[in-house]
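Sequence in, structure out.
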Amino acid sequence: MRIRSATRIAVAALWHLYQHAEKKGLGASFDREAKRMEDLRPTAVVLHNALEFVRNKRTLDSILYTIDTIDSAKHRIGVMGAKLFKRRAVIMTHCESTEAESMLIHSKKKIARVYATETRPIYQGVSTAKRLAKEGIDTVLIVDGACGIFMPEVDAVVVGADALRKEGMVNKIGTMPMLAAAKAFGKPVYVAANSLKVDRRKKFSIEYRSPKEVIEKAPAGVDVLNPVFDITPWKLIDKIITERRIYTSYELAGIL
């Protein structure tokens, strides 16, 4: 958890594999190391898709190309997404996403305030709040459960994604309740995600982490569950901003 967000993890894994391949080549050892990287994050799909590409190409240049593709996609998403906001917009966001942050940073002259949730139990949202504040954006940190209280003030909700599947959009736990609240108040929901997050895998599972992240010692007789992600139905989402174009949820769901 020292490296967080699906794209940051993918880029870090690709750099590791590049260094591994320089020393040991692109044979069986490379395949084993790629599988080890992939198994670290079974839910997030960007790493899986990136590894599929480099395993097929099997060159050092293909690894560098994929890293550059991920980085340049983030910039294009930020530029395109910024066009969706009007001046003095109030935005709410959840968790830690390089692409959602890119949208907000490219839009900072239009943004009056960002409400960022803590994103329990690891508090990734605190890192997001720090980065936005460093960019000069008026940022307010709130607990996850307070999203409904502040939603009436909000002009739009912006989140990232770990996977775009036919069932819906997979993202950090707590995303689905936030987007349901946005729908209840009639607020538009924008998802920032590069096209490597399109997930056509047949096998899919929600990752669970240690209960100790939630509570060090559970009360006697109480089980503690710590799912990392949830799935938001497409009907709760308005637009998906990729590096290629902006899709409506209806369009993207049809493609998936």
